Amino acid sequence: MGAEAGEPSSILSLAAAFSYGVASMAMVFVNKAVLMQYVHSMTLLTLQQIATALLIHFGQVLGMSKRKDFSLITAKKLLPVSIFYNANVGFALASLKGVNIPMYIAIKRITPLAVLVAGCMRGKGKPPTQVILSVICTATGVLIAALGDFSFDLYGYCMALTSVFFQTMYLILVEKSGAEDGLSSVDLMFYNSILSLPFLFFLIIATGEFPHSLTVLSAKAASLTFSVILIISLVMGIVLNFTMFWCTIVNSALTTTIVGVLKGVGSTALGFVLLGGVEVHSLNVTGLVINTFGGVWYTYARYKQKKKTPWKIQHDVESHAHK
């Protein structure tokens, strides 16, 4: 991962973005499949974080992965990252209980607009006009698609919108932390999982999930199908975290959110077919087309911007203008 500290190659940037897109698309379906059988979303998130921490720890012991020694100073700096991360995933999982996959993805696509607004507010400067217009186009597609949702669930929508806010804060903090502290994807993952656990343990006890959730989990584990889906969910949680941190450090917070938007096109199409619960409406299709156009337009606008500005200067502006 030596390239993380300096200028990343185009191949590395593309690999990070593509890996995150694939992992993110797969994770939505895996989590939805688990939650259809096991409703305790916070317990699921806790299990994913425990699996992540254990894998990184044993990976280091066996010499398969490298990370910096645990530092309390770094842990304090990364605590807000961890809080926002868990709030984002917690609200996202809660929304998946009541919202079908195409509409869940449509709501989450508002994140790039939120990242853009937050970036302007913290002094990153105004992005090029084409970038602004493409992100607005993407968000407009979301609103049109939402109007065609027959299975409207107010609770689910509120949970998803709250998740958008926390994801925005979280991605901006990851971009800042990775750039300023020289932390790798594995370092950020380990700190995030360790710092998450006390917060999550408190939540599952406070919400009453624990210990009933473990009793249900033990009973469900007798089913081979459920056990396989759960194991895939735990592994995909690790893969998704790694690729998200990697993409955000190598590229930027806004690029990571746009990759999320583009993978959402495939997820939405699959969402109409897999796992059920969706009625097709012309507004959904219209919104999806507008959203896709906005995502492609944004990619082109950012490519033009990168050709004009050397990566090092651009990344310094993105990461350190608000110091």
From TrEMBL:
Membrane topology: Multi-pass membrane protein
GO CC annotation: membrane
InterPro entries the UniProt entry points to: Sugar_P_trans_dom (IPR004853), TPT_transporter (IPR050186)
Entry superkingdom: Eukaryota
Subcellular location, record wording: Membrane
Record-annotated Sugar phosphate transporter domain positions: 22-298
Keywords in alphabetical order: Membrane, Transmembrane, Transmembrane helix
A Pfam family hit: TPT
Transmembrane annotation, as ranges: 12-30, 36-58, 78-95, 131-148, 154-174, 186-206, 226-246, 253-275, 281-300
Record protein name field: Sugar phosphate transporter domain-containing protein
Organism of origin: Miscanthus lutarioriparius
